[in-house]
Specification:
Layout: E1 8-13, H1 20-24, E2 33-34, E3 49-50, E4 53-54, H2 58-61, H3 93-97, H4 102-112, E5 116-120, H5 135-153, E6 160-165, H6 171-185, E7 189-192, H7 208-217, E8 220-224, H8 234-238, H9 242-264, H10 266-269, E9 275-278, H11 285-303, H12 311-318, E10 319-323, H13 330-337, E11 342-344, H14 358-365, H15 368-375, H16 377-382, H17 386-405
Parallel strand pairs: 1-5, 5-6, 6-7, 7-8, 8-9, 9-10, 10-11
Antiparallel strand pairs: 2-3, 3-4
Helix pairs in contact: 5-6, 6-7
C-alpha cells in the first residue's frame, strides 16, 4: 500500500537478461539472433540483431551523432517533470547490484508502495516491431520472452504479474500465444504496440480474432509504444533527433491507435474488451474524444452507423489511460474523463522514470480521492480483486521476513 491506498503499477518494466535468447529461444532460430559481447566474449546489454536487422533503429538513425563532451551530468535533469531522473542519483544502485533480478523488482515495489505490478519489457519493446518478420520467428521470440517472464515472476507470483508479448505478424499465432500465456503461465493481459503492422492498423477487421480472444479469456490488452522501432513513422519524420521522436512517438502513435479503435467500433463489437493506453500520459485523451465527438453528428450515419454510443461513453466503459504522477494536468484530466479511467505507471527502471517518487508525486499533485482512484486503475484494468490484494499482502510480508532474517 501507499499511505493506506491500494496501488497497482500498470506498467513496471523489467531488464531482460543478456543471455535470454541463449537459454529460452528455440534452437532452430538461435542463429538468426546475434548479441553484443564485451572484451571477454561475454554477452552484454546493447543492440540485438535479428536476421541482420537491429531490433531498435535508434542506433541507425543516430549513427553519425557524436556524444557531447564536457557537459556536467547534473545539467541533464534540470526541468521540473524530470527532476529526480539523474542517472547518478544512486536510486537504482540496489537493482544494478542485483542485475535487475526479481528480488530487486520486489524491492523497488516496496520503495514505491506497490501492491501488485504488471510487468512490461525493455529490450523487448521493439523486439518484434518491424514489418515482414517471419511469423514463426516472431512466435519463437515472443515465446522465449514469455517463458523467461513467467520464471521471473515465480519469485513472488502474487505480486509480480506480466503482460504477454504477442507475435502480431500472424493474428492466429498471436491468439494461440495469448491462450498459452494466460492459461499456462498466468499472464493477466497482453502487450502490443500501437503501430501499423504489415500495413494493417488497429481498425482492421484482421485483428477481430485477437480482440475476441481477449474478451473470452477476460484479460486486458495493453498498448505500449517505444521510441526507435522500425515500424514507427516517427523515424521518417524526425530522423536522428531522438528528442523529437521520443516526444512524438509515445503520444501520437497512441492517439492514432485510440482514434482507430473508437471509430472502428472495436468497443461496440467487443463490449467487454479492456484496453490500456500506457506510457503516453493522458492529458490528450479529453481533446481527442472531443474532436471525435465534434465530427460524430456529421459522419456517424454515413461512415460509422454501427456505433450506438458516443466515443466518450466507449472510453469510459472500456479504456484506461496511464499517467506517471507528476503531470500538472492530472486533476483537470480526471475531471473530464474520470479518475477511474486512469491508471499509473512507475516506468521503473527506465531513464525517464521518477522512481522512487512516482506515488509521492501523485499524492502531492492531486486530491487524495483522485489519487486513490488512479492507484486502483490498474486493478480495474486487470480485474484484480480483494483476494488478489490479500495474496499480495501475504507475499510481501513473507518476503520482508525472509530479508530481515538474512
Amino acid at each position: 500500500m501507499k499511505d493506506g491506498l491500494r496501488f497497482v503499477d500498470c506498467d513496471m518494466h523489467i531488464m531482460e537478461p543478456v543471455d535470454l535468447f541463449d537459454r529460452y529461444l528455440d534452437k532452430k532460430f538461435r542463429d538468426r539472433v546475434t548479441l553484443p559481447v564485451d572484451a571477454k566474449g561475454q554477452y552484454k546489454r546493447g543492440m540485438v540483431i535479428i536476421d541482420g536487422q537491429p531490433t531498435s533503429y535508434d542506433a541507425l538513425t543516430q549513427e553519425h551523432r557524436k556524444p557531447k563532451k564536457g557537459r556536467e551530468k547534473a545539467e541533464l535533469s534540470s526541468q521540473p517533470l524530470s527532476g529526480s531522473r539523474m542517472a547518478d542519483s544512486g536510486r537504482l544502485d540496489f537493482a544494478q547490484e542485483r542485475n535487475y533480478d526479481a528480488v530487486a523488482q520486489v524491492m523497488g515495489m516496496e520503495l514505491e508502495g506497490i501492491d501488485i505490478a504488471v510487468l512490461f519489457p525493455t529490450m523487448g519493446l521493439s523486439l518484434l516491431a518491424r514489418d515482414n518478420m517471419d511469423p514463426q520467428l516472431s512466435l519463437a521470440l515472443a515465446q522465449a520472452y514469455n517463458n523467461w517472464m513467467y520464471e521471473f515472476c515465480q519469485y513472488s507470483p502474487d505480486q509480480l504479474k506480466f503482460a504477454a508479448m504477442l507475435p502480431v505478424h500472424d493474428v492466429n499465432l498471436a491468439c494461440q500465444e495469448l491462450v498459452r500465456c494466460v492459461t499456462e503461465l498466468g499472464a493477466t493481459g497482453s502487450f502490443v504496440r500501437p503501430n501499423v503492422v504489415n500495413g494493417r492498423f488497429w481498425h482492421s477487421n484482421y485483428w477481430n480474432p485477437l480482440f475476441d480472444m481477449h474478451e473470452q479469456l477476460d484479460v486486458s490488452m495493453g498498448f505500449h509504444e517505444g521510441t526507435g522501432a522500425a515500424n514507427s513513422y516517427m523515424n521518417t519524420l524526425y530522423g536522428e533527433n531522438r528528442f523529437y521522436r521520443h516526444v512524438a512517438s509515445h503520444w501520437i502513435e497512441m492517439q492514432q491507435c485510440m482514434i482507430a479503435m473508437l471509430i472502428a467500433g472495436v468497443f461496440e463489437f467487443y463490449p467487454k474488451l479492456r484496453v490500456g493506453y500506457l506510457e503516453a500520459q493522458n492529458s490528450w485523451v479529453p481533446g481527442i474524444l472531443t474532436r471525435i465527438e465534434w465530427d460524430y453528428p456529421q459522419y456517424r450515419d454515413s461512415h460509422a452507423p454501427y456505433l450506438s454510443l458516443t466515443p466518450k461513453e466507449y472510453f469510459q466503459r472500456n479504456c484506461w489511460a496511464a499517467v506517471e504522477g507528476s503531470e500538472p494536468e492530472i486533476e483537470a484530466t480526471a475531471s473530464l474523463i474520470g479518475a477511474d479511467r486512469m491508471c499509473i505507471s512507475t516506468d521503473y527502471p527506465h531513464f525517464d522514470s521518477n522512481f522512487p517518487n512516482v506515488a509521492n508525486n501523485l499524492l502531492d499533485n492531486v486530491k487524495r480521492e483522485t489519487a486513490a482512484a488512479i492507484f486502483m486503475g490498474g486493478a480495474h484494468l486487470h480485474n484484480f480483486t480483494d483476494e488478489d490484494f490479500a495474496k499480495a499482502d501475504k507475499a510481501m510480508e513473507e518476503k520482508q521476513k525472509a530479508m530481515a532474517a538474512e
